[in-house]
Each structure stands twice: as structure tokens, then as C-alpha cells.
Amino acid sequence: MGNEVVDHGRRRFLTAATAVVGGVGVVAAAVPFIKSWEPSARAKAAGAPVTQSLKKIELGQQLIVSWRSLPIFIVNRTKQQLAALPGQDPRLVDPKSDGSSSAQQPKYAQNEARSIKPEWLVMIGICTHLGCVPTYVGEMKPEPFDPNWQGGYYCPCHHSRYDMAGRVYKDVPAPKNMVIPPYHYVDDMTVQIGVNPKEAS
Ligand code: FES
Q1: In Å, how far are 123, 126, 150 from 184, measured between CA atoms?
Q2: Is 112 found in the same domain as 60?
Q3: 44 in a domain, yes or no?
Q4: Among residues 8, 129, 158, 184, which one is catalytic?
Q5: What is the pLDDT of residues 36-58, one digit of tens each?
Q6: Residue 94 within any structural domain of the chain
Q7: Residues whose CB is less than 8 angstroms from the CB of residue 28 and which lie 6 or more positions away in sequence, other chains included
Q8: Are residues 57 and 24 located together in one domain of the fold?
Q9: Which domain covers residue 6, as residue numbers?
Q10: For a Cys staple, 113 with which of 32, 118, 157, 193, CB 3.0–4.6 Å?
Q11: Residue 157 CB–ligand 1 contact under 6 Å
């Protein structure tokens, strides 16, 4: 009876020792896998949020920064450009961005200006037709492609047009408004692209 107990104890010990050795082996073997699952520093940097000061972007100007290899248009919209937005509604495919374009922006940017602060547009500058980068044509004056142009974007590839909030006009090949990425304000004049505002997350 006594031997049984001792044997039993030894067996348990041996089992435990084996388990520990096995455990170490397993951990050692697992390290290369874990390493390969971790994104490389470069991949991390490519997907990381981008912080951008707005200080040097003058009224009516556009700055393009790169986030996840995508061009991000940041525009300091003028009062006139903003004032022209509501008047465009009848000419647009989805002016309220609540139909075919309801997934094209976060909820906090689902408004007339498609932004957190009306004056600052932050948008992925990719045409929703076949992915060209539309040209910023900010001036409100007759253009060859629109005699009543109120500022916005013109895609040189197949002539799609968008207004100053990236909302697509009717009768062009692009089906949807351009995409607004997640972003928030770090302070009054600094945005971070790739991260939602705290209250939205
Ligand atoms: S890619 Fe812009 S209109 Fe075709």
C-alpha cells in the first residue's frame, strides 16, 4: 500500500517533469511561429495612425498625406465652399450619405460636410469608380466639365465629379461618395488619421 503511494508519487513527479520539459520544448518551438504572426515594424508603420498638423494648410488649400498607402486629402474649406454644399444636393447621387453611400464614412462624419469640423475635410482621395486619384479643383468657376462648378473633385480617368464634401454627382461612372477614414482631433489644429474619436469607440 505504502509502495503504491510512493510509486504513484514518483510517477506523478516523472509525468510532471516530462510535462515541464515538454512545455519548454513547446514554447521554444512556438516562438518562431509567434514571431511570424507579429507584423513587421514596416507593416506596423504602414498601418499605423498618421498624425498631421493643420497649421500650415491655408484657406482653400489641400494637403495630401499617406495613410496605409492611401492618399488622404485634407482640405481647409472656405466659407464659400461650405456655403455651396447644400445647393448641390439635387445634383448628387446620395447627398445625405444615407443610401448607397451609407458605409462610406463613420457615423460621426455622416452630415452635410461629411466631417467632424465643417471647415476641415479629411477624406481618402480614391475615386469610387475604378480607383484613380481625383484632382482637386477648388475654385468656384465654370469648368469645361461643368459650367456651374462649385468646387470639388474631378477624376481624369473617366470624368467622375464630386463636390467639396466628396459627394458624387449624378450621371458619372463613380457610384458612391468618396470614403471618409476614421480620424479624430488630437488638439484644435492636429488630426490623427486611423483612430476614431474616443466618444465614437
Ligand atoms: S476611376 Fe474615376 S471615373 Fe473612373
Answers
A1: 12, 20, 27
A2: yes
A3: no
A4: 158
A5: 555 567 766 678 999 999 999 99
A6: yes
A7: none
A8: no
A9: 2-38
A10: 118
A11: yes
